[in-house]
Amino acid sequence: MKDFVRVMKALSDPNRVAIIKMLQHRVMCVCEIQAALGIAQPTVSKHLKVLEDAELVTSRKDGVWVNYLLSDGSGSPYVATVLGNLRHWLEDDPQVVELVEKLPTIQRENICKK
Amino acid sequence: MKDFVRVMKALSDPNRVAIIKMLQHRVMCVCEIQAALGIAQPTVSKHLKVLEDAELVTSRKDGVWVNYLLSDGSGSPYVATVLGNLRHWLEDDPQVVELVEKLPTIQRENICKK
DNA sequence: GCTCTATATTGCCAAAACAGAATATCTAAG
DNA sequence: CTTAGATATTCTGTTTTGGCAATATAGAGC
Q1: Which of A6, A56, A85 best probes binding to B when mutated, by most B CB atoms within 10 angstroms?
Q2: Which residues, in sequence order, are bridge partners of residue A57?
Q3: How much is the pTM?
Q4: Mode of pairing for the β-strands spanning A65-70 and A28-29
């Protein structure tokens, strides 16, 4: 029950759902997600922690960067199923469409290192 | 996006999930749910409102009683899918098992009209 | 060692969520 | 039309959440 509720709670925020929809297209680092969503960096880190605690997302350190990617869902049937459903769900959502369209223009080389 | 988040948020509370698991077995009125969960009546009504707003649940008035039942999900693909999944999910959850076991002993004739 | 830079953590605030007590509404029955 | 019981709504207090600014941490490179 706790695991299930944790996953549902993680999916109860539009920004977190947006992160998942973006990660369906590619791996992203924190500053890229920050640039895409237009919210503060600590806020992004906190959202990612919630998603990671729910096992919806995993991270891999690559030097200074931390790459976030979708979990394979092997640890939780809820995660596996919901991530599967989210492949089709929200594909036509205006906010998601806009995010995915500008995704190619967001590259860590241009965004960070200011 | 808003619809999806609303459904996820509705499923982010253990008591609300418990209500859904009970409604899988039979229609229930407010005071029966109250007795099963052991929480205050206004709290139950509020949870039911959240579930109804998310279209996870429907209600039918029957005189003084209001019977709550699971939605058929025809209004929302998220609802249809998640309610389908919840048929199998949490079947072995201790809290759910205990609730379902004592479900037969909870009848509105015995519970209400105090 | 020191300096950048990316990310995480902390602290704080406003808004939302959950709980119950008290109250209001509705309906059946007399 | 008055009462009694089932449910909904309001009110209030407490906890949780989402946001940001400020700070701390970690790794790359000098």
Answers
A1: A85
A2: A70
A3: 0.94
A4: antiparallel
